[in-house]
Amino acid sequence: VQLVESGGGLVQPGGSLRLSCAASGFTFSSYSMSWYRQAPGKERELVAAISSAGSSTHYADSVKGRFTVSRDNAKNTLYLQMNSLKADDTAVYYCYAYATLPVREYWGQGTQVTVSS
């Protein structure tokens, strides 16, 4: 099983980035997917989540209206479009897969996003 994030980097405040998470080794379309982030000295927090079919999404209040989560089950890929980035968005962003019956969960290795002028 692999979850490989990409697309992170350094961006100026107000800029945009698109993160991708390529999944392999499991049935991607059967898993709910999420993006989490962890800033230095802080706990890991949920950023956005999407249901297995992509019909339902959820966002943290701090990113509503700026971030969009999506998925392409044909490509086994999860996305996070991040617009109007702020310094507070600086963190390592992780991809997370979750399924029930039985419970199965997987984490990616993370990709660094730095918002700075």
CA radius of gyration: 14 Å
Distance between the termini: 37 Å
Report the structural category: mainly beta
Residues in helices, as a percent range? under 10%
Largest beta-sheet characterization: 7 strands, mixed
Runs in which pLDDT lies below 50 for 5 or more consecutive residues are none
Helix segment tally = 0
Number of strands: 11
Tell me what portion of residues adopts beta-strand conformation.
Answer: over 45%
Oligomer: single chain
The helix/strand series, from N terminus to C terminus, equals EEEEEEEEEEE
What is the overall pLDDT average?
Answer: 97
Shape descriptor: globular
In brief, what are we looking at here?
This protein is mainly β. The protein has no helices and 11 strands. Strand 7 and strand 8 form a beta hairpin.
Write the layout of secondary structure elements.
Blueprint: E1 2-6, E2 9-11, E3 17-24, E4 32-38, E5 45-50, E6 57-59, E7 67-72, E8 77-82, E9 91-99, E10 104-107, E11 111-115
Parallel strand pairs: 2-11
Antiparallel strand pairs: 1-3, 3-8, 4-5, 4-9, 5-6, 7-8, 9-10, 9-11
Features:
117 residues; mainly beta; seven-stranded mixed β-sheet; four-stranded antiparallel β-sheet; 11 strands
Would you mind describing this structure in some detail?
The chain has 117 residues and is mainly beta. 0% of the residues lie in helices and 53% in strands. The chain is built from no helices and 11 strands. The strands form 2 sheets. Strands 2, 4, 5, 6, 9, 10 and 11 form a 7-stranded mixed beta sheet that branches. A hairpin with a 6-residue loop joins strand 4 and strand 5 (45-50). The model has no long low-confidence stretch (mean pLDDT 97).
